[in-house]
Amino acid sequence: MTYESCDLCPRMCGVNRALPVPESRDVSAFPPAFQGPGFCRCTSEVYAARAALHMWEEPCISGVNGSGTVFFCGCTLGCCFCQNYQISQPVFSLEDPDGAAAGKKLTIRQLADVFLRLQDQGAHNINLVTATQYLPSVIRALDLARPKLKIPMVYNCGGYEREETIQALDGYVDIYLPDLKYFDPELSKAYSRAGDYFAAASKAVAAMIRQAGKPVFEEYSGAKGKCLLMKKGVVIRHMVLPGHKDDSMKILSWIRENLPEKSYYISLMSQYTPFFHSKDHPELNRRITSYEYDKVLDHAVRLGLTDGYMQKKSSAKEEYTPPFNLEGL
């Protein structure tokens, strides 16, 4: 898997992201030799927006100390409701002279050092958020850091992955934290510009489970308290969208019918908040109702999908989005 003819995500853009590009990320400024930016608009230079202890993941990930979360810039999806839109959507990340831009460029060595600093701060794990567009660089950074890293690696992604990407992460990742956003290709095309989302994500999630195996937990006790931490496994996330509870129930039914029992945890989220371009889709320009979430939750219980987490309706708050202020970089 390579930047030179990019094949890192299911879009398979095939552009050469390793060529030098102008300081401007204006598409018109790219030289003719650069075949035009791929969907993610990223080059081979790694940009991140934050690296800090994060308390807002699932309890088995955040624990009592926090998850050592690295938020990367860019994304292979284009979700109209993205809560991290400040850093995920092009054009996003060139630093300005005042250091107020969304992202900071990191060398491979600097990224490895970020991982180690988070471990030194007491992180329960290193949590890579939306890293696929930088996969070759992330693996090189992990190779540098691995001799000193003693905590699990978490791959936190939108689920839109190639099986080959998951294979490339074998031996590097302990815990997968994928979304499974949509069942209906019309929804994924309209809201994330990826009509093949479920076709790709369903295969990727199955590959994650085959690789990680059944969930493994460990008791932790420290100065801040006790908790049960996941050391290995897969937590499948699904966020219920307003007006689309039926699609959510189809996803849960597919999970129950197609994935090995007791081989994953479910995280059923109610935190949807209208962000970014949600207003362009009237049906998405509101929060979900208690009725919608309860119907999906009841369906999960009927299916026996009770290993995992649910959210209170009050979780739909903007505070779940951290400040992308280059902390920890």
Overview of this protein structure:
The chain is α/β, with parallel strands linked by helices and 329 residues long. It has one domain (46-320): TIM Barrel (Alpha-Beta Barrel), CATH 3.20.20.70. It has nine helices and ten strands. The protein has helices at 59-62, 85-88, 108-120, 135-145, 163-168, 185-192, 197-212, 245-258, 290-303, and strands spanning 46-54, 67-72, 104-106, 126-129, 153-157, 175-178, 216-222, 225-239, 265-269, 308-310. Strands 1, 2, 3, 4, 5, 6, 7, 8, 9 and 10 form a ten-stranded mixed beta sheet that branches. Helix 8 (245-258) links the parallel strand 8 (225-239) and strand 9 (265-269). The two termini are 27 Å apart. The model is unreliable at 27-35 and 91-101 (pLDDT under 50). GO terms for molecular function: catalytic activity; iron-sulfur cluster binding; metal ion binding. Keywords: Iron, Iron-sulfur, Metal-binding, S-adenosyl-L-methionine.
